[in-house]
Description:
Layout: H1 4-73, H2 79-89, E1 96-103, E2 109-111, H3 128-140, E3 144-150, E4 156-166, E5 169-179, H4 180-185, E6 196-203, E7 217-222, E8 232-237, E9 242-249, H5 257-283, H6 285-299, H7 310-327, E10 331-338, H8 341-348, H9 350-366, E11 373-378, E12 381-386, H10 392-407, E13 410-412, E14 415-417, E15 421-428, H11 435-451, E16 457-459, H12 462-483, E17 487-496, E18 503-515, E19 519-521, H13 523-533, H14 536-556, E20 563-566, H15 577-587, E21 595-599, H16 601-606, H17 609-621, E22 624-630, H18 637-642, E23 647-650, H19 662-677, E24 681-684, H20 690-699, E25 703-704, H21 718-724
Parallel strand pairs: 15-16, 18-20, 20-21, 21-22, 22-23, 23-24, 24-25
Antiparallel strand pairs: 1-2, 1-5, 3-4, 4-5, 6-7, 6-9, 8-9, 10-12, 10-15, 11-12, 13-14, 17-18, 17-25, 18-19
Helix pairs in contact: 1-5, 8-9, 12-13, 15-17
Keywords: Membrane, Transmembrane, Transmembrane helix
Main location: membrane
Cofactor: Mg(2+)
Amino acid sequence: MHTPLTNYWRKLIILALVIQLLVIIFAERDRQLSIHSHQREALQQLAPLQVRLEGLLTNNLIVLRALAAEVSLDPDISGQRFARLAKELIGKDLHIRHIALAPDLVIKYIYPLAGNEAAIGFDYRRSNSQLAAVQRAIERQAVTVAGPLDLVQGGRALIARVPVFHQQELWGVIAEVIDFQRLLNDTDYRDYQQHYRLSIRGTLDKIINVNDESFDYFNVLGDQQVWQQTYVSAKVSLPDSQWQIGLVPHSGRWWDWQSYTLTLAIGTLLNLLICFFLGKLLFTQKQLRHALATITYQAHTDNVTQLPNRADFIRKLDQRVNEATHTSTSFAVLFLDLDHFKEINDTLGHESGDRLLKELAQRIQQHLSPLDTLARLGGDEFVVLLHHCETDDSAEQCAKTIQKALRQSLTFAGFNLTISASIGIAQFPQHGLSSSTLLKHADLAMYAAKQSGRQTSYVFNEALRHKAERQMQMHSAILEGIKRQQFYVLYQPIINVAEPHAGMAKVEALIRWRHPQYGDISPADFIPLAERTGAILELGEWLLQQVCHDWQQLAANGLPLTIAINRSLREFNDPDKGKHWLTELSKVGMPAQSLVVEITESLLMRKRQRQLKILHDLRQAGVSLAIDDFGTGYSSMNYLREYPIDCIKIDRSFLKDCPQDQRQVSLLEALIKVALSLELNIVAEGVENPEQLALLKQLGCQQAQGFYLAKPMPASELQAFFKTLG
């Protein structure tokens, strides 16, 4: 009886044999391709040799044919005329050793004569060795080529003969001796011998198939063993015969033995590795099943709180929607966002923040029924599926219970914390019939709860949906307004109030929007929306370019002012943003010292290295940095010392009831003293009357801005305003 383990090994061995067979087939196919490739390459290299050899032979035989034509016209040609013609025809680029005229088959003239005198009077009919070749030429009445033959005087030569007829009667023959070695040398055949063994053989038969071995071949040149191996060849046509040039690699193989062996070795090694890993898999199945279970769990679970994640919650919500649709029941979705958790997380650190999230999740879970589902969507956002919740009142009661549980103070990482949440509520089926709609509407209700002051809950209504749609329309209108130049910039002067004769220290750039349909839209309406939707990036880029253009115009008119410009937290998420701003300044020749970047306290509270690096780079380049609306956020004296801040702008709310409200005056005085002790410049915003201005001077504030001092104005009016200051 075969156990599952035995069957597994049997299958593994069969698989190994199949893979090895495939390796052999692949290696053999690769070898055949290599053979064909090398043979094709050799044939391509052989073609020029064939052409050169045929061409050189043809050039040498042209002399023979030309003399034959001349003699057939003038059979009584004299020796002098023959010598003159031969000298003219035999050029230096030919390989003719000598040429002889044999009327009546007896050599009468020979050129050149020197060294060949003994051949005069030679009768072909008395030489059995040459008579057959002469008769062959006469029978064919065409040029014949014999050889190569070993010459008595040394060397090897081809002998070409042509019969000459006069008035259809045989006159005789003309013989031409061609220096075979010189002819070969001019073909550069030795170049081929670097990589190949070369051989040339000839036959008196007409070669149709170069691989046909049935002909009677004779050796012309080279090693005849070439023809016993796998060769490539090309034929060379002669007047009465043909030669065949053959090439074989020196190794005798048209394929790379090392490459073939390496392919087999690598394939075999891979086969062994595959079998090894498959064998190892046999012993790791348990671990694999455990790993798959872990992956499945992680795919549906938040790794911080161990609660269901977004994907798993939506799956469960889809199931509840289908169930409630068929049973005509109701349920509710609660969308929770922890108030100010980002600031807490940045203060405690992410590791402590994760442990805090886990603690808060446990608090919420304790106040839910076993049927309810709590999930973490990410960050500080949670959702609750209340499986049986028929009314909005029931959902709100559950939300209040969760709020109460979260607000219980706890000591964590050395801090005494009180956490609250903003909760949005959406009810099925009143507020949506699908999972995505319910989540979206609960999310909108949560944002409404935040805008209502946080620490509260809000039930979705149609007004929220309409508001969200209006916000999307406003977002599109902002982007369209930038394209259509609907935005413009006003500049509000900032006055030096500490000097005896007040002067303009700088101006603040204020963006405005004049919509063609809705008229002037307040920045308080479109700036927060742009921050939420991301359109603030396009607005910020447009504002910077417009400020640079206006500064260039003012500088050309002799008023190179320092301009303060507000920058959004979102813009600092781009690590190259600071370099980009400096580049925009350099395009118009605006010094970095002429720009003040105003940021909010929240940017420094986050302590993100990317954002802080941008601030340091700007400060090092000469740009001044100011904190706008100082005192309205989580103000901390620490970051005023740690970060490269030059100026704080005290929010207008601190001047509102001054100088009548003494407590407000004391608070204002404390802020100014702290800034002065840190050697920071101070700008007070919202100066509306002379009493406030006098108070600021008394408290030591250096600069101020407000409607009492100067209203925002176009860049074109700054020149005239500057003159009014003297």
